[in-house]
Automatic annotation (TrEMBL):
The keyword Transmembrane applies. This is Membrane protein. Keywords: Membrane, Transmembrane, Transmembrane helix. Signal peptide: none annotated. Pfam families: DUF2231. Residues 12-131 form the DUF2231 domain. It comes from Sphingomonas swuensis. The keyword Nucleus does not apply. The chain crosses the membrane at residues 48-71, 83-101, 113-135. The lineage of its organism: Bacteria, Pseudomonadati, Pseudomonadota, Alphaproteobacteria, Sphingomonadales. It comes from the Bacteria.
Amino acid sequence: MERTATAPRVIHPVHAALLAAILPLFLGALLADWAYSSSYQVQWINFGAWLNAGALVFAGFALLWAVIDFFRADRRRDPRSALYLLALIATFVVGFIGALVHAKDAWASMPAALILSLVTFVLALASVWLGFATLRNGAAR
């Protein structure tokens, strides 16, 4: 039986935009939390909370897209798609916990907000890397 080449799987442009938007927003939240921890100007923690909330909006829509895409028949067999989905779920969950910590008083949110922002950014970086590396695989199967 001869194998036929399938069309290359590429990431949808809307999914790519949603996924790419989370990285600078989570980075901004991390930098704002770092600025607050070094200056104790309350506006920095507010700015970090808003950046985290904005990143969660984009991450939520990217997660919804990834879940729908994962349950398509041709994606379930690829373990890299499952790893991408798990990384995106972890990013959203840790980011949501970070949003709850940001909701506390500014002084009370440190150092937990800074640590959670760092963990969320690292998870977002892994999610974006896995998402683009997994979904743009153009090799024939």
